[in-house]
Amino acid sequence: MSINAQNITVTYGKKTALDNFSFEFTEEKIYAVLGPNGCGKSTLVKALVNKYANGNIAYVAQETLGVINLTVQEYIELGRYNPGKFFGGLSEEDKNKVMQAIDVMELAGLENRLFDTLSGGEKQRVMAARALAQDALWTILDEPSASLDVKHTSLIMNTVRQLCDQDKKSFIIVLHDINDAARYADEFILMKDGKLVKSTNKLDVEDLNSIYDTNFEKITSKDGRELFYAT
Ligand code: ADP
Ligand code: MG
Predict the structure, then answer these.
(1) Residue 215 domain-assigned?
(2) Is residue 228 part of a domain?
(3) What's the total number of domains in the chain?
(4) Which of 24, 70, 108, 219 has the most CB atoms around it within 10 Å of its CB?
(5) What is residue 52's predicted lDDT score, i.e. its pLDDT?
């Protein structure tokens, strides 16, 4: 199932946050959405979730709002609930998916902690675990590594890469770190001022300069990876 977004416009009052966005996201890829603050990345992924959800998209928002008042275990179990079996309780398969997600996101030991008492980085791992437990065809993550250290960023991104390569899952991930995007994603959705500027499978300095309004340089690491930094 591809996600075929056509002519999506979102306005807040007079502000056009997303301006006639069209793009077909095809399966079994990791898409990185890149662009400066306020360019409409979160608006885009929320619109995709609202329009194309029908149970096939797991979504982790950029921020959690309000009080959650659930334990880590309960919060991750929410990933297994769907309207069709609301009061049915968790099956063996549900419990396994939850256990695997806890394991993969290295949350063992935190199961009984209240979500609200966790650090920002721990919350992000728990939210990622809930999405993984959902085991959806598509997973959309909005800046999943914003408060994560290097090790846990790699943990999430390597997990995503593996789920894509081995389990044929598809991902759309908003990333603020260009080098994480360059390292893990297959395709880059470059945005500016609410518009899709370009989709490409290779980042280059010119495109980055134009969307971020800054000057990038590219260096190649010893193992042949291209790294971009703003000068
Ligand atoms: P990004 O995720 O790329 O940082 P957003 O999609 O969150 O950007 O926001 C795009 C634009 O829409 C910004 O100018 C932001 O201030 C505005 N915006 C987002 N949400 C709202 C809202 N609820 N009300 C008014 N303006 C909003
Ligand atoms: Mg955002």
Answers:
(1) no
(2) no
(3) 1
(4) 70
(5) 85
The per-residue pLDDT for 83 is: 57
pTM summary value: 0.95
Q: How far is CA 104 from CA 38, 98, 99, 125, 133, in A?
A: 32, 10, 9, 10, 10
Whether residue 214 lies inside any domain: the answer is no
Q: Whose CA is nearest to atom 21 of ligand 1?
A: 12
Residue nearest to atom 13 of ligand 1 (CA): 38
Residues with CB under 6 A from ligand 1: 12, 15, 17, 35, 37-43
Lookup: tokens for 123: 């919350």
Stretches where the chain sits below pLDDT 50 are: none
The CA-based angle 104-108-169, given to 5 degrees, is: 20
Ligand closest to 40 (CA) is 1
**Residue 85 confidence (pLDDT):** 60
Q: Measure the CA–CA gap between 59 and 53, rounded to whole angstroms.
A: 9
Q: What is the pLDDT of residue 86?
A: 58
Q: How many A from CA of 113 to the centre of ligand 1? A: 32
> Is 218 within a domain?
no
What CATH number has the domain bearing residue 48?
3.40.50.300
Please tell me the predicted confidence (pLDDT) of residue 118. Answer: 96
Range of the domain at 67: 3-203
Span from the CA of 40 to the centroid of ligand 1 (angstroms): 6
Cα 65 to middle of ligand 1, angstroms: 16
